[in-house]
Fold this protein.
Amino acid sequence: MMRKWVIGTVGFAALVFAAFALSPWPSILLVRTIFDRGAAEASQKLERHVPPNVSTTTHQYDPKRSNAHLDVHRPGKLESDAPTIVWIHGGGFVSGRRGDISNYAKILAGAGFTVVNVDYTIAPEAHYPEPIRQINAALAFLDRNASKLGVNAGRMVLAGDSAGAQIAAQTAAVVTNPAYARLVGIAPGLKPGQLAGTLLFCGVYDISGMGRGGGILGWFVQSAGWAYSGKRDWRDDPQFRTMSLAAHLTNYFPPAFVSAGNADPLGPQSVAMAQALKKAGVPTETLFFPASYAPPLGHEYQFDLDGAAGQLAFRRSVAWLRQLPR
């Protein structure tokens, strides 16, 4: 009896190992469960901060894709010539949806801006660079329908958190660097002058060295890279490496605001991105915290508006948005 139990247990373990080794799906489903729970908790905490005077409409920006929707949040009083903020949700490229950041988008809209949050197809259902194509299509839709939607098509800010910050920054690079657009294979949906800025929180901007240390972070990076690229050996894929941005930044990239927490595993990525932007001649404002800052600020700290750091990030973001060049 014991022998049968041992054989059965070993056989089950072998099947589980094979499932994780042959496809990214088992790992991604586990990641989604964890990430979705965290996103729901963060959104719930923001509910009490949502102002009452924000209206929301939903639109399908690409009729060829059933999930290609965006929400437009408008305040009761819109600031004169205020930029329109297009926010791209995070989730490690493999989880998340626009609703995750709806409450934060409404709070930001309450400060006097039109805020748009966009859905895109996550991996492994879609592979790189499909999310860039979709955000590009969303921008073109907003441009075409600007007057109807109340969008300032001449002053758009691409914003995002975590993976969404990478997608926002990469889309901005595609719009402002023709050589890079050709390299990625995407025709920009906007003209460079229509981008007023990029608002980037807790992003990942260079995949070359990520996850090499092993552990839980290494497992996640390997799983997400496999899912997003479509290739198990994603580090060897030259096309996938084009998502690393430093080499493709020019002084035409719009002004940037970059921030991350002092206990965020991706924090060094934001610091390096800010340095690369400044080196390229891009006006860049940063919000970083000393290592001694307490309590420690983890990934996506900016969504905690009950904490002093999250409140500071919100105030600084709003002030930065209001002073963007016209």
